[in-house]
Each structure stands twice: as C-alpha cells, then as structure tokens.
Amino acid sequence: MKMTKKIFIIPALLLAVIGVFAFAMIPSANMDNDDSISIEYNSNVCKTVTRADGTVEPTECDHNLLYNSGKELIEAYLGDTGGATDEVDQISLCDSATPTNCGTPQADASETFLTITDRGLSETTGTYASLGVGNWTISNTFTATASVTTAGTRLQNTAAVNFAGNAFTEVSLESGDQLSIEWNIWIS
Fold first, then answer.
1. 184: closest CA among 18, 39, 7, 30?
2. Could you tell me if 162 and 124 are in contact, meaning their C-beta atoms sit under 8 angstroms apart?
3. Strand extents, DSSP E, the chain
4. Where are the domains of the chain?
5. What is residue 187's three-state secondary structure?
6. What backbone phi and psi angles, to 5 degrees, belong to 12?
7. CB atoms within 10 A of CB 106
8. What angle (nearest 5°) sits at the alpha carbon of residue 36, between those of residues 154 and 115?
9. Cα angle vertex 132, ends 183, 105, to 5°?
10. Which is more confident, 39 or 14?
11. Residues 167, 105: contact at Cβ < 8 Å?
12. pTM metric for this prediction
C-alpha cells in the first residue's frame, strides 16, 4: 500500500513543480505604452497671508478640481471650428519616402517631420466632433492621388503651433487609396 501511494505522490509533486516553473516563465502583458503621454490637468492654488504688522503666515498650497465646465472650455478652445488660427484642428502627415524623414515624436517637436504637401495628403482642417464632457475628435480621410508612404501625423493649429505628434506603422498608398486619421482627445 505504501509503495502505491509513493507512485502517485512523486509524479504529482514533480508535475506541480514543473508547472510552477513553466507558469513563471510566461511573460506578462505590458499594457503601458512608453511612447504615450496622457493629457492630464495639473494645477494647484497657493495662498499666503501678509498681516498689517508685516508678519507672513506660511504659504499653503493645495490641488484644485477641474470642473466639467473647465474641461468643456479646454475642448472649446482647442477644438473650436470658428475659423481662428488658435484652434487645434490641422492634420498633417509625414512623408516617409526616406526613413529619416519621420522621427519619433519628441515633447519639444524636434523630431524630423517632412510634411506631405501634395499627392492628396496635404495638411488639412480635420472634422471636429464633440463626444461629451472634455472629449472630442478631430479626423480626416485622405485620398492618395499618387504613390506615397507615410509613417506619422501631427495635430496643430493654422499658425503652425504643434499640439501633438504620432508615429505609426508605415503605410504605402497608391492612387485612390484612402487613409483615415482620427485624433481622440479627452481631458480627465
């Protein structure tokens, strides 16, 4: 009887140990995108009291709350389609005919970005759509009129002030091919 138990227990333990090691070797999914920076609202309010006798109380700083109306104000300013040059609704594409023409977006917009100015992919005013409180899109569907490759896009205003950039997997287009770009923006 004792020998029968050992025959079952030893293989079961061995299988369990192998299973633990095999499970530990499976890589976990990385949900973070190292190339992405979220839009966040950061602010605080500081107060300092100076008394009539000249004494100053310690400064007190606290985080403030961004109201829904404030989110809507940011949306209205950035997405406004009233024709002013400050609205952020211009979509441009990068010409990746040479790999060095489209760099990885940098916070200071210093990456190489050779804007396509022809072949049906010229910078254009995107279509604005409000999707709720502090949530909107700017989009456009481009139709190629000749062969072209692209691997990036920028969103800016008509005064050429860059708002955001994005690098994507290079796409080759032929005349008649369409490329849809949709910028989804939300303030949290």
1. 39
2. no
3. 44-47, 60-63, 88-95, 124-125, 127-132, 135-143, 148-157, 162-173, 178-186
4. 67-186
5. coil
6. -65, -45
7. 11
8. 15
9. 20
10. 39
11. yes
12. 0.71
Token pair for 8: 């079952």
Half-sphere exposure of 150 (CA within 13 A, CB side): 30
> Tokens standing for 148?
């072209």
| Residue 70, phi then psi, degrees to nearest 5 | -70, -40
Between vectors from CA 105 to CA 99 and to CA 184, what angle results, nearest 5°?
A: 115
Q: Which amino acid is at 147?
A: S
> Where does residue 16 fall: left (phi above 0), alpha (psi -120 to 50 degrees), or beta otherwise?
alpha
- Specify the DSSP class assigned to residue 58: P
Q: What are 63's two structure tokens?
A: 């985080």
Helices (H), the chain: 2-24, 68-79
**pLDDT score, position 8:** 54
Tokens of 113: 């970005």
Which carries the bigger pLDDT value, residue 64 or residue 24?
A: 64
In contact, 165 and 152? CB cutoff 8 Å: yes
Least confident of 32-36, 154-158, 165-169: 32-36
In tens, the pLDDT along 97-145 reads: 987 899 999 989 999 999 999 999 999 999 989 888 888 889 999 999 9
Distance CA 183, CA 168 (A): 13
